């Protein structure tokens, strides 16, 4: 019943607000993915974000559907294998996906136009040498 109530409230939002809510969920995942204490919350949030993408599809402009479909697939893949090491890879990936959604919905203004081509290598150095080649393979331009 809780899911139905959430859906009823979600469908009243504009598509930009729906995308913003998904971006917020992804930002939360990026915040909590590094901590084993939040594993259950992280796993639930991965599923929630995928479910919200399902719900927003009828309202989103067609040019964004492919990106959303790919994000949906990635979220469910993470959900199936979580918890996974290195956790920082999930945190980095969901932070970038959150930013992409905010730009997509027009909720992030003044963003560098090169956001689509995130410098994953320099981010990898920040993550203390974590192999981020997986992120490079999944990065898709908006």
Structure commentary:
The protein has helices at 2-10, 15-32, 39-56, 65-81, 87-104, 120-126, 133-138. Helices cover 65% and strands 0% of the residues. With 142 residues, the chain is an all-alpha fold. It has one domain. α2 runs antiparallel to α3 (39-56) and α2 (15-32) runs antiparallel to α5 (87-104).
Beta-strand portion reads under 5%
Helix content percent band: 55-70%
Poorly predicted residue ranges? 113-142
Number of strands: 0
Q: How can the largest sheet be summarized?
A: none
The structure class reads: mainly alpha
Radius of gyration: 15 Å
Distance between the ends: 35 Å
Number of domains: 1
Tally of alpha and pi helices: 7
Globally, the shape reads globular
String of helices and strands:
HHHHHHH
């Amino acid at each position: 019943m809780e899911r139905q109530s959430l859906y009823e409230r979600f469908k009243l939002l504009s598509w930009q607000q729906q995308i913003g809510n998904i971006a917020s969920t992804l930002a939360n995942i990026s915040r909590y993915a590094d901590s084993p204490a939040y594993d259950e919350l992280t796993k639930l949030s991965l599923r929630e974000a995928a479910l919200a993408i399902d719900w927003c599809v009828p309202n989103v402009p067609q040019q964004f559907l492919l990106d959303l479909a790919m994000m949906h697939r990635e979220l469910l893949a993470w959900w199936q294998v979580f918890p996974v090491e290195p956790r920082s890879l999930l945190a980095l990936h969901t932070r970038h996906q959150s930013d992409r959604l905010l730009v997509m919905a027009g909720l992030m203004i003044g963003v560098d136009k090169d956001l689509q081509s995130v410098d994953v290598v320099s981010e990898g150095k920040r993550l203390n040498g974590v192999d981020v080649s997986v992120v490079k393979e999944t990065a898709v331009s908006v």
